[in-house]
Design a protein that fits this description.
The protein is an alpha+beta fold. Helices cover 15% and strands 37% of the residues.
Length: 178
């Protein structure tokens, strides 16, 4: 594992080579596009990455129809490695592949859909930018909870009697949840 910046930094930007290494090691990602109505959509997809190109399989469905008219996409993968979390984002354009040689090349990379529906078409994403980040997961600490300091609890003596916690009765042990 190589970091491209100071490994002690909370968030480390990854270089292009490290991003491609991570892309080539994964098989499940998320494809984000804009559909015909202008709404953003995110699809989980099986993919392969090799030689600076990402391939995925598709049926002739809404995803493929959207790509015909709006080829700009974002593609994201994330994972964990050696106790670090990481994410890689690819921005680019996606097109249906129609050349036999490229379809064979995509199949040779092990491209395969896990979907129960047939996915006869191959889609190629041509990246415009590839960026990534890596960070160590922060241990859980209640003191560091960003919501905790924002919870307002008025002083007990300002509360009406019905809202105050009960006082124990002498000789009776209080319950643990009181």
């Amino acid at each position: 594992m190589t970091h491209d910046q100071n490994p002690a930094a909370p968030v480390v930007d990854l270089g292009t080579a490290e991003c491609w290494r991570l892309l080539e090691s994964e098989r499940l990602g998320r494809l984000a596009l804009v559909d015909a109505s202008g709404e953003p959509r995110i699809y989980p997809v099986n993919f392969s990455a090799s030689d600076g190109v990402i391939h995925l399989r598709s049926a002739d469905d809404a995803k493929l129809r959207s790509l015909r008219s709006r080829p700009a996409v974002a593609f994201e993968i994330d994972g964990e490695e050696a106790g670090d979390r990481w994410s890689v984002v690819v921005l680019g354009h996606a097109f249906r592949v129609d050349r036999d040689a490229e379809i064979r090349r995509a199949r040779a990379t092990g491209l395969r859909s896990m979907s129960p529906e047939p996915k006869p078409y191959v889609v190629r994403i041509l990246p415009r930018s590839v960026t990534g980040r890596r960070f160590a997961e922060r241990p859980r600490d209640e003191e560091d909870d960003p919501v905790r300091p924002r919870i307002f609890r008025p002083p007990e003596d300002t509360l009406p009697a019905a809202a105050r916690p009960p006082h124990p009765i002498a000789g009776i042990r209080p319950r643990g949840d009181a």
